[in-house]
Amino acid sequence: MTSRDFEILYKETRLNLEPTSPSSIVQIRVASQSSFGRTNSTRIPNSAAADNEKGYRTRNLATASSIYYRKHHASPRGFHWRVLENDTVLSIRAADVCKQQNTADAPLILNLRFPAAIRTSCIGFSDPEDHDVLCVHVVDHANQLHTITLRPDHFRRRSATDSGLGDACKSYSPPGFGFKHPHRLVVISSEQLIITMHDGGILRFDRNRAHEATNGTMWKETIYNVAGWGQSLRGLVPFQRNATIRYDKINMELTAATATAITSMGHDTSFLFTVCLDHRMRIWEAQTGQILYTGDILNTKRDPQEVGKWVIDPSQVNLIRILDNGPGQCLVATYSPIGAGEFKFWKVKANNQGSVHVADCFPEARLTPSSPSSLDVWTLADFSMALQGETPELWVLWKNNTTYRVQKLTVHSRSETPFADGWKGVFVENGMPAAQSSGPCDAVDSTEKWLDLIFFPGRFSKSTLETALAMYERGLGTYKETSSKAGKSIAESICSVLGSTTTLDRSGAGGMDYEQFRGANETQWMRFWRLLLELDKQRGEALSLVFDPEDVIVWVACADSVSAIRQCSGLDRIYHNLESPPKGGEGVAALVTAGLSFVEGFSDSMSQLSRAALRAEIYEDSAKPDDERIQQFFDKAGFWRQITEEDCSQVVETLGQNFRMLTPRLYDDLFDLITSDGETNSQELREPFTALGRKVIVHTVQDTIELHWQILFSQLILLVHMEFEIDDEEAALHSRFDVGSVYRRLIDALRRLEQLRWMAKTELSIPVSKADRSNSGTASPTAKRGNEETYSITALEGLTGHLFGLSESNNMPMLSSITDLVLDLCSPGSSTELSIWLLQCWLLKHGRPDLALELNPFAEQDPFSTYVQGRVFLAVNQFDTASVYFRRASVGLSVSMKNVERHSASLLDDTEWNLLNTGLPNYYAHIVNLYDRQKAYSYVVDFARLALQFIHGHTDDAPGARSEMLSRLFTAATAISHFDVAHSALLSMDDEAMQKSYLRKMVEKMCETGDNAELISLPFSGLQNKVDDILLEKCRATKDVLNGVPYHRVLYAWRISHNDYRGGGAILLDRLQKLRLMGEGDKVAVSAAEDALDTQVTRQYLLLINALSCVPPKEAYILEEHETGRTAAETHALKNGRDDLEDHLDELAQNLQASAAAPSASLGRSEEAEDDEALVERMKRFASLHGGAAPLSSRKLLTLADLRKQYQQELDRIVAMQNNQFGFSAEEDDFMDVGA
Question: Most buried by CB count within 10 Å: which residue of 231, 583, 816, 867?
């Protein structure tokens, strides 16, 4: 018998148990009673990954695991617990799939570290009705009973455990454990516990509320034995019984209970059901310790001489389950592991007098579970009961080493054949996908294929990858415990290690042997892959089966994972039951079988060509007719070249001659199976999903995508093949139904799946939000080191995760609600719209423009989608392409619209949204801002010009917008040295203050970049004097005229170009004076090859003389200012507001007046005197203009003759220096010949 003999109605979804971030794990050390029950919390240790299989199992694989659901409180309601690290750590986390509205998630994992190894069979939980807490009860091998009270905040905020648990953790050493050995723990309530002992008795613990006041013991103990009598602890004397069985170094009595269950059946007292080693069920009244019933668990009489054949192994723990089905009664299921195993159902009734009535529900029927396969040894490891309406259901868990199977049986309690429906199977995905083979013509390197396979979201845990890499390095002999992989991701480390094992050698012909290199590389990756699979296989060992009665979902708790059981969709049922399809699905099953069988024979190259042809159809919106599109796909795919007659005959055999089975209705039935009603996700959520629930949805979507893709892709290939297979026009498919319509529907469905596939496989790191960090209380060690704490999330969850949940009208079980939600998400007509532009915005917001760029083939063509594509290209620095998209979207995003929905995943703020749909100027201003952030100034110039073109002066905001764009235009043009554009913007500015400021920036920029010629060539209409003033200010502030920006030369050129030769001479004189102060006049050439008379000073004299030579003789003068060397009289005169120049001008005016008054003055002399007077007036005006700049300076009028004289004196001074003739006083004009 194989698993195919069971009808598959359910599927599993396997989830990893990795925390979202390292800070999600909180380590809490539980102290023993000797430490007064005090606890402390510590940070998670940064221990290295295990480098061997034993260490890997110890750290990551649980020895016991299950899920506990609270009855009285729901936030959180479920808790998943695991026992790790040699049974010293009890790890607990919230395990709710959905939560109440506005309720915070509980992401923390509490690792309770015990001083001694805990007994995995003595772990229990309780839910006090009057307090919203979780009570944990644990018995360790040191025979201490630990009671730990955890609040919901402990699972939400790290700060709740920063100072330890304090009085919330209490330890107690029961005296009864001194001579009795605990075997099983049963929790009745937080106030009452029962522990079954090795001798068949039970030890009841009642909480002592008075112990807090009297500092007494926490629990009051009462012992009961199988005879039903009870006495105090001091009066009990243990004795040895005859029939025992050895287990865990203890002789167990056959009356010892190995499996237990508790129920109240609506009464004030509780009833303890036990299955004992002697194959009997006993019912205890918990309050009195009285045994109310004893009987064989299969209701069969045994021969006393064959008691040993029916002894149950003490390791069996899951042998009884109770289902309350009314007041005062319950349904009990017992399982006998003896032989092939058998179930028995009991109807138990209890009355108020303390008695129970036990009846066999089906005395004439036997239920022997069918193992998944008769070829292997399977063990029934666990089972659970559920009540669907009034019909009980039995769920069982089979194990074969690390492999498991789940089955379900519906029990018809009122039927003569209660088990007639038979066992229904759960499809468990055990195999891993294989990596595609690599060839020399592949566009993608084989390493990328392996990385995509290994790092598919949720496939392997990080600890598995790290351990496999360490073991692989040990096998190579290159592993070092102290080797540092700091700064490297796990993917980089794997590539580095595997890449070091392969070298590129030369072939026998002398060339590079790429084929050998490729083959050796594939071999190393395959070895690492197999090692990963061996480690990962251990993670899937099933430990327990749990049924959630409130949400109605089944869980399988494994060593390092958890699997959710969900209901199959219609297409799932057909695919997994092709040999025996459900009623009404025979036609679709035949169609699916034909397609899968046809494509299965394709070679790798044929499959690649077909997928390439499909990508062209998915990504491109073709306007061609349907028949041309089908013909084009047929030609591009080219699969007709390799199909054989056998392949074609199989299709004919399945679908009939000329494919007569195909009808439009058959394809409608197929599409109905992948189409939801469209209302699953469109309603307001009543209970949104938690992080665990969203993870279930994402992994279910991944599985559904692969299944739907496989079926629909094969159907597309099959449809195209059948369309061209029949030569008879009357029998062709297109003559019977619209083939083009089916083709389009298949393409649309595959396009939706391709988008979802990308979103489900693309994973990125998201920084932990401030709210989550504040909830965590304290920063993690990673965050303290300065690295921002992140967590991984798929693009699917990031974009659509907030839509996952139960709607207001959803009253379906969780195992079917998950399927409906996923089916709607994958449906072509889904109510969940996959807005590619919104996903791109989300990726851009989180700094992944590379991923956003991959989505461009799916992007829509509406204006905002086009704009978002421009943002994507802008983020990857493809500015030119981005400008094309921005221009294309300009008209659509400038038109005013009402009620615009502002959704951009926070990529655009309110200010940016306000610039859209409010006219072209505002839109282009927004684009200018975008390019300005990227410092792409040439595009800032382009779009600023466009904005200025559309700014009209009649609007109120036009002046401000125009001023802003001119400012942006000027700044960008100046930054890229487009000074002609900056000049135009400058002249267009109306704000004089801004114009003056930008003029200074432009002049300084042009001088600093050496664009002096362009500066002089620009007209600067109306701003020439301001340019001169700016340059003059820079010249006066310059001390070192030989280094830095040559402002003197620029101003000289500026004034000469504007025919201001005397002004040019003045700035040359200023430079001459500063050269003298720098001592440049004394730097005389000493080599014979250089001209000693050619110095910086003499050259400056020549320039000055040449400049004044261009001025008419009467105007060939300049004003010289002296800052140093003043006499006392000069200083006094300056302080009185006069200097020697003014005195000279006054004296000259007096002489002219005297000569004009002389009687001998002739007519010609009068004309000359008038000219002299005019010259004096001009000189006075010149002095008044230049005197205000330096009122305390000594000024002197220099004519061209004076400058020539000074030049000659400078030459004589140089010659004297060459002849070693030096003067002793600086005030003397003559030189002394010291050599005479």
Answer: 867
